[in-house]
Amino acid sequence: GEQVEQRPPHLSVREGDSAIIICTYTDSATAYFSWYKQEAGAGLQLLMSVLSNVDRKEEQGLTVLLNKKDKRLSLNLTAAHPGDSAVYFCAVSDDTNAYKVIFGKGTHLHVLP
Amino acid sequence: NAGVIQTPRHKVTGKGQEATLWCEPISGHSAVFWYRQTIVQGLEFLTYFRNQAPIDDSGMPKERFSAQMPNQSHSTLKIQSTQPQDSAVYLCASSLEWGGEQYFGPGTRLTVL
Predict the structure, then answer these.
(1) B54 preceded by cis ω (within 30°)?
(2) Is B105 in CB contact (< 8 Å) with chain A?
(3) Cβ of residue B45 closer than 8 Å to a chain A Cβ
(4) Residue A45, Cβ neighbours under 10 Å: how many?
(5) Which of B7, B9, B57, B59 is the right S-S partner for B45, CB 3.0 to 4.6 Å?
(6) Which tens digits make up the pLDDT trace of A53-94?
(7) Which pLDDT score, from 0 to 100, does residue A8 have?
(8) CA distances for B102 relative to A7, A53, B90, angstroms
């Protein structure tokens, strides 16, 4: 079945710096890609989703890149601020079972003031 | 819109006791999902309902775990004879349609002593 690897598990950056989180997946049939943010004691908040026909998407200081050849998905937070400190998860699913989301193990991001 | 509601937020049980977790999906959402989150395993899919019908419970442990959705306004996850390894955060999510964006509740943290 699908395997998702996420790195790094922990990331510390200074306020204003960028933070990059990467996920790799194994199933070439993967069609849906998402990034979630989880703050302490809260559920997961969807940040951005892309379909497999999209290579790049930018919204509100976040950039998602999809490299289907290398089966790699990345999230770039430009100009991170302390409010971005949280755990970030990538998530993927395929066309056949779009509801069955496979999550990465998460990245604990700490933005230092 | 209150979002997905999960109760209780925290539950402590003794080994061998039963635990029932509740989820109220967003009104109008036809799909409900249950996930388990632990440090070691990360986020694991447990089960999925669509229009109250169980569609996929492939992630549910075969023994002691059961989920129901008696009406469109709530779903329950029941764990019989709880064991320490059942300790986790149990997350419920709902979506408008079967492959759509999933909205997560805050989770129930279950601690089995």
Answers:
(1) no
(2) yes
(3) yes
(4) 13
(5) B59
(6) 889 999 989 999 999 999 999 999 999 999 999 999 999 987
(7) 97
(8) 23, 21, 15
Q: B58 to chain A: nearest residue by CA?
A: A100
Task: Find which of A7, A36, A44, A95 to mutate to test the B interface (most B CBs within 10 Å of its CB).
Answer: A44
Cα four-point dihedral sign A108, B105, A66, A4: positive
For the record, the structure tokens of B86 come out as: 């059942």
The nearest CA of chain B is from the CA of A85 a distance in Å of 17
Instruction: Name the one residue in this structure whose structure tokens are 């986020």.
Output: B43
User: Read out DSSP for B5-31?
Assistant: EEE-SEEEE-TT--EEEEEEPPTT--E
Task: Print pLDDT tens along chain B (113 aa).
Answer: 679 999 999 999 999 999 999 999 999 999 999 999 998 888 999 999 999 999 999 899 989 999 999 999 999 999 999 999 999 999 999 998 766 778 899 999 999 99
**A13 neighbors A88 (Cβ within 8 angstroms):** no
Facing residue for A44 by CB, picked from B31, B48, B104? B104
